Amino acid sequence: MKPLRLLITATALASLAGCSMEQHGYRDIDTFMRQMDNQPSGNIDSLPQFRPYEAFAYQAKALRSPFKQPVRVSLTTEQIKRNVKPDTNRVKQYLEQFDVDTFRMVGSISNEDGFWGLVHGSGGVYRVQVGDYLGRDHGRITFIDDQQLQLVEIVPAGPKYWIERPRVLNIQGY
Q1: Tens-digit pLDDT profile for residues 32-77
Q2: What is the C-alpha to C-alpha distance for residues 59 and 156, in angstroms, rounded to an integer?
Q3: What is the chain's alpha carbon radius of gyration, rounded to the nearest angstrom?
Q4: ∠ CA 50-51-55 to the nearest 5 degrees?
């Protein structure tokens, strides 16, 4: 027991002796702090004034996407003579407000009343038939079977001319 008591006493005395000693290792830090306290304090710049956020309304949704290649075609004399034009007096169908590239054919259905293609896009699955319009470029559906949907778009080919461009939507899984 005596060695343990002697060890505890020696440890306590060493701890007390360490607390009472003068700390010589911090003189350079104390000197630096005194120098900094003696310097004049600077001014803090005021916060910059920020302009409020102005919302931007994109107005070119109906135009050609800038990420697609423009349609560049040389017109044949036959195409110039035909002078195909879209029917501007026709009432637009619902699916004409979306781009054809957003749709994909996912199936077909039929009954005694007819045959329809099923296209997925713009947040839903829609039933279309031959003669319906699809897409922004006046695309009229000309053929539907269980594997594909064909349509003919009328696209501008200059300031006064329009041409017909065939498109095909092949069936894809949902």
Answers
A1: 888 888 888 778 888 888 888 888 888 777 677 778 776 665 666 6
A2: 20
A3: 40
A4: 135
Task: Name 62's Cβ contacts closer than 8 Å, sequence gap at least 6.
Answer: 136
The Cα 107–Cα 127 span in angstroms is 9
Helices (H), the chain: 2-20, 27-38, 77-82
Distance CA 174, CA 98 (A): 19
CA distance linking residue 150 with residue 143, whole number of Å = 5
pTM as predicted: 0.55
3-state secondary structure of 25: coil
Measured in degrees and rounded to the nearest 5, phi and psi for residue 11 equal -65, -40
Task: Check residue 171 and report its DSSP letter.
Answer: B
Tokens of 70: 């423009």
